[in-house]
Amino acid sequence: MTSVLFQRVALIGIGLIGSSIAINLRERKLAGHIAIATRRKDTLDRAQSLDLGDSYHEDFAEAVAGADLVVLCVPVGACAALTALIAPALAPGAIITDVGSVKGAVVSAMLPHLPANVHFVPGHPIAGTEQSGPEAGFLELFENRWTILTPLENCDKAAVARLQNLWEAMGAMVEVMSPDHHDLVLAIVSHVPHLIAYNIVGTAADLETVTQSEVIKFSASGFRDFTRIAASDPTMWRDIFLTNREAVLEMLTRFSEDLASLQRAIRWGDGDALFDLFTRTRAIRRSIVAAGQDTADANFGRLRQHKDLPGQQ
Ligand SMILES: NC(=O)c1ccc[n+]([C@@H]2O[C@H](COP(=O)([O-])OP(=O)(O)OC[C@H]3O[C@@H](n4cnc5c(N)ncnc54)[C@H](O)[C@@H]3O)[C@@H](O)[C@H]2O)c1
Ligand SMILES: O=C(O)C(=O)C[C@]1(C(=O)O)C=C[C@@H](O)C=C1
Fold first, then answer.
1. What is the pLDDT of residues 109-160, one digit of tens each?
2. Whose CA is nearest to atom 27 of ligand 1?
3. What is the ipTM of this complex?
4. Which positions, given as ranges, span the membrane (predicted)?
5. Range 6-177 classified under CATH 3.40.50.720
6. Which class does domain 182-305 fall in?
7. Read out DSSP for 4-35?
8. What is this structure's pTM?
9. In this structure, are residues 164 and 149 in contact, taking their beta carbons and an 8 Å threshold?
10. What are the structural domain ranges in the chain?
């Protein structure tokens, strides 16, 4: 049995993550009032027609006024300007958080604009799909998935606990870590995999000896999975690679070295090296499935059942 955890939640940006939070707040009755603000009138109108909130604002400051929780649900590159815009309107004691996929850069971008009398608790739900826009959200997105919070050392513990309660009420599991550690971990489990997907789909599309229609016609499920990831939002991912540059480059160096070893194993017919690696990686997949962390597959299945879902914001 859940109860109202915040009196007024302001959601800034209402795409996949913002709308999933809105649906959770409403369905689970976690907020007294849901105020929604976003950049484009058209997106706001679509959010309203989906009945995602209680009030809709083109003026960001108006949306956050009186809110005890403000959640930035926008691409990482938009966080600094938006924080500067809303900072003067934040209520004393409010918790301000975000859902950005990179944390170090978000902290550096937001912190200088924030008044001392609010609690800044950056966050990141490790849950998503390749869809964007207010129509893409759904209730189960965060269920049994991790959300990472990266509060600064001097942050009020009660504020962190309140935000943790909210994520848990939305079905998530919560872990706290430093922004830098978050960025390093996410570089290898999320950012580099996306780069690989963008790259392989781009390479296939550029092949002179294989036609576009053959790529589409013969794409087996392995390649198809890459195309799903490579359909992810261009703005969001541009911002991620520009703001988590160091960690991504570090992981790419390791990745390239390991890829070169695989290339060598294939060239010299070293079947044992290939077999050993594939055995280790199969065990990793099986432990992820055993831990119940493969719900993205379930989400993907769910989205496929709704083929008419618009993908644009
Ligand atoms: N999509 C995912 O899988 C996923 C998962 C976890 C976290 N995130 C993070 O969540 C954030 C939002 O991602 P999303 O998937 O919901 O994106 P989305 O594209 O579905 O929605 C983004 C929203 O931000 C608004 N917006 C964009 N630029 C803006 C600007 N300059 N000023 C004001 N509003 C602006 C858009 O109108 C839209 O309402 C990103 O920071 C992303 O890194 C995404
Ligand atoms: O399943 C997907 O489509 C995702 O890419 C989700 C995913 C991920 O890499 O796991 C993407 C970026 C977010 O920051 C968090 C989650």
1. 999 999 999 999 999 999 999 999 999 999 999 999 999 999 999 999 999 9
2. 74
3. 0.98
4. 6-25
5. yes
6. mainly alpha
7. --EEEEEEE--SHHHHHHHHHHHHTT-EEEEE
8. 0.93
9. yes
10. 6-177, 182-305
